[in-house]
Each structure stands twice: as C-alpha cells, then as structure tokens.
C-alpha cells in the first residue's frame, strides 16, 4: 500500500515494477516543529504517514510505504510551494547556492513498527536571473513541490551539479525503496 497522493511517487514505483494494491493519502500536519532539523522533520513525517495509514488498514500481511521529501538550505526547510510567491521565494533563495534534497522512506509492517531510511542528494543551482524565475513561475511547475521546483521538468536547466539519486529529488529514491521493501519480504 502506498501512503501518498503523489503521482510522481506512483510513477517511480511503476518504473521499478511495483504497483501498490491501494493508494491512500495520509493527511497529516506537515509543518516543522520548532527548531526541528530538516532530516528529523522528514523522518518524523514519513513515519507518521506510514503509521496513520497502517492503523486504518492494519494487517500483519500489509506493508505501508510512505515518504516525505524536504529541500534544505542549511538548517532551513524550504516550503512545499503553494503559490507563485512561494516559488519565487524558494528559487531566489536557491539561486547560485547548494542545497540538499532528502527523502525519508518509511515502511510500516506491524503495529508500532516502522523502518525508516533517509537518502540525501546534493544539488547546486546556477545563479538564476529574474527572467528565468518569472518564466518558471508562469509554467506553474513549482506549485506543490518541495522547494518550489520539480527536477523532472524545466528546473533541471537550473542544475549545475547533482550528487546523489535523481529519483530521490523527484520524490522517491528507487534503489533504497526497493531494497527496503525487499528487506520486508516484498518480491520485486
């Protein structure tokens, strides 16, 4: 079972040959706790999402996969952009700088038991002009995305350097996710 409404995560799983029996979004409060570091935030949310869905459909024979992706600029967690202003603010902050995209992947497999693995990818953006930022805002690609951009689209033209998993930045690190699921008995 996939505890996510993200079409990108579903597509990435399909790319790995995994089709969840059910997809059910875990509607949880995704705001960071006061002074919560980015990695702890992502791990907490992934585990909470997995537990919430497992508690709704719980069975010893069900694995619930959940994930949370965070874009971190130092200790600052950039928001999941919900407006043009959010996208503009995120891209201005990332312009010419390095940042880390981390995805915590959680598998709930029994009451109270969740295994979490976190993958980090380092990215450096080129310096962005106001024209590039405004053009990106107009195509609406950054809305709903952590850090206000989607690497699988036009924002890939902003990247000077990527060190790590490309699929992690899109929303689900495939090698680690498949390994985690296999470790819990899923044949994939």
Note the total helix count. 6
* Spans of at least 5 consecutive residues with low confidence: none
Largest sheet: 5 strands, antiparallel
What is the architecture at the second tier of CATH? Alpha-Beta Complex
Shape: elongated
Mean pLDDT: 94
Number of strands: 5
| Structural category | alpha+beta
Strand content: 15-25%
- In CATH's first tier, which class applies? Alpha Beta
Structure report:
It is a single chain. Strands 2-1-3-4-5 form a five-stranded antiparallel beta sheet, with helices on both faces. The protein is elongated, with a radius of gyration of 16 Å. It is α+β, with helices and mostly antiparallel strands and about 190 residues long. The model has no long low-confidence stretch (mean pLDDT about 95). The protein contains six helices and five strands. The chain has one domain: Maf protein, CATH 3.90.950.10. Helix 3 packs antiparallel against helix 4. The longest helix has 20 residues.
Give the arrangement of secondary structure elements:
Blueprint (H helix, E strand, L loop, with lengths): L6 H9 L22 H20 L6 E10 L2 E3 L5 H11 L3 E13 L2 E13 L4 H10 L19 E5 L2 H5 L3 H10 L5
Antiparallel strand pairs: 1-2, 1-3, 3-4, 4-5
Helix pairs in contact: 3-4
Features of the shown structure:
188 residues, Maf protein, elongated, 35% helix, 5-stranded antiparallel β-sheet, alpha+beta, single chain, 6 helices
Summarize the structure.
With 188 residues, the protein is an alpha+beta fold. The protein contains six helices and five strands.
């Amino acid at each position: 079972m996939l505890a996510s409404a993200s079409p990108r995560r579903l597509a990435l799983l399909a790319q790995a040959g995994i089709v969840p029996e059910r997809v059910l979004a875990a509607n949880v409060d995704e705001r960071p706790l006061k002074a919560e570091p980015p990695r702890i935030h992502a791990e907490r949310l992934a585990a909470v999402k997995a537990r919430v869905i497992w508690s709704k459909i719980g069975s010893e024979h069900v694995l619930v996969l959940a994930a949370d992706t965070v874009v971190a600029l130092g200790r600052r967690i950039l928001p999941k952009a919900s407006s043009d202003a959010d996208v503009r603010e995120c891209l201005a902050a990332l312009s010419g700088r390095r940042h880390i995209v981390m995805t915590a992947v959680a598998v709930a497999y029994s009451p109270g038991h969740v295994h979490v693995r976190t993958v980090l990818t380092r990215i450096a953006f080129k310096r962005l002009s106001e024209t590039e930022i405004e053009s990106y805002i107009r195509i609406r690609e950054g809305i709903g995305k952590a850090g206000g951009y989607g690497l699988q689209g036009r924002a890939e033209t902003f990247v000077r350097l990527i060190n790590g998993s490309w699929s992690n930045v899109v929303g689900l690190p495939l090698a680690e996710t498949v390994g985690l699921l296999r470790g819990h008995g899923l044949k994939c």
